């Protein structure tokens, strides 16, 4: 029932809040290891979250893990999607991270913190799944509830960008969309964040 009501009970990425104000937070995230898949949503009937099942199969969320050990890997949150183009289109272990433009979307699951390096993570059987290390990084972050539609996300990103620039922070890349709850969570109880990388 906790999942329906928005309770987050899985591991989330380790971070330090460097600054908090009414408009946003500045966070520094610790290094992590991610599993990611890149795909073309147009080949999946426009499904921007089409990589989810590939990654869920890798960690064994729905059955036998599709990795060389085989080792079940705990789900984390959020699922993160990041835009890989200047057009600011959205793309979608928890967390799951996705990035993309109109043609390619990259989705990532952040693996549990017990995996300190790429070598420690179980090797995927599906060649579409790539394991990579993410270094320490800093983001401006704004949290919101409800359904993270393209329109809502775009509005949040633009407002966050303006607030960060107003306060002298330099944005150095495309946004991430972090979604902490499964799709069956009641919309008003969902936790979402937009994140912009800053210097």
What does it look like?
With 199 residues, the protein is α+β, with helices and mostly antiparallel strands. It has a single domain (15-197), classed as Alpha-Beta Barrel (Multidrug-efflux Transporter 1 Regulator Bmrr, Chain A), CATH 3.20.80.10. Helices cover 13% and strands 29% of the residues. It has helices at 52-59, 150-166; strands at residues 15-20, 25-29, 32-39, 79-82, 96-100, 105-110, 130-134, 137-144, 176-179, 192-197. The longest helix is centred in the last third of the chain and has 17 residues, at 150-166. Residues 86-94 have low confidence and may be disordered.
Structural class: alpha+beta
CATH-wise, what's the superfamily?
Regulatory factor, effector binding domain
The radius of gyration is 16 Å
Helix run count: 2
Quaternary structure: single chain
Strand order of the largest sheet: 1-2-8-10-9-4
Shape: globular
Total of domains = 1
The largest β sheet comes out as:
6 strands, antiparallel
The CATH class, by name, is: Alpha Beta
Helix content class? 10-25%
Q: Low-confidence runs (pLDDT<50, min 5 residues)? A: 86-94
Give a short synopsis of this structure.
This protein has 2 helices and 10 strands, in the order βββαβββββαββ.
Q: What features would you highlight for this structure?
A:
alpha+beta; Multidrug-efflux Transporter 1 Regulator Bmrr, Chain A; 10 strands
Task: Give the helices and strands, then pairings.
Layout: E1 15-20, E2 25-29, E3 32-39, H1 52-59, E4 79-82, E5 96-100, E6 105-110, E7 130-134, E8 137-144, H2 150-166, E9 176-179, E10 192-197
Antiparallel strand pairs: 1-2, 2-8, 3-6, 3-7, 4-9, 5-6, 8-10, 9-10
